[in-house]
Amino acid sequence: YLKLIEFEIMKLKKISVYIFIFLLVGCAKPDLMTSDNKKIFLDDLKGKWVVINYWADWCPPCIKEIPELNKLNAKYSNELNVFLFNFDRLEGEELKTQLKKINAEVPSLITDPQNIYSYTVPESLPVTFVINKKGELSSILQGPQTLEQMEKVLNL
Questions:
Q1: Residues 41, 81: Cα–Cα separation, whole Å
Q2: What CA–CA distance (Å, rounded) separates 19 from 52?
Q3: For residues 150 and 72, is the Cβ–Cβ distance under 8 A?
Q4: Are 108 and 101 in contact (CB under 8 A)?
Q5: Global pTM?
Q6: Cβ neighbourhood burial of 149 (10 Å; 0-12, 13-18, 19+)
Q7: pLDDT, tens digit, 9 for 90 and up, residues 66-95
Q8: Residue 9 — φ and ψ, nearest 5°?
Q9: pLDDT digits over 124-134, tens only?
């Protein structure tokens, strides 16, 4: 009977360890968050290009560029991730209203990625940062970009 109790205690210890590990993983802080509360971890982005576009509603070239980013995302969604980031750091309903107004079809980050990728955002917009498949800054594209221009930079 004592061996049965020892066996049950060992099982409980193993289960406790698994629960503890599960809780640690589940509580991991994401590297980035989107405006629709999606958590993004850098490990999930590795192996794909990442395109991050800084824009503002007072910037006509930014608004003109959004359809090109939508096309890039739709055409190459298996090979890259496209994100927007509002230069004015808008969040909540105000950001959602602007995203709808500009017909953005790509996720908008609310966590500023410049802190992760160690780049400096210039004062002139739009600007697009291209992160390679290894997670390293590859290109900085100033001014509005077309689908064709971005395909060349990404070798797509």
A1: 13
A2: 37
A3: yes
A4: no
A5: 0.80
A6: middle
A7: 999 999 999 999 999 999 999 999 999 999
A8: -65, -40
A9: 899 999 999 99
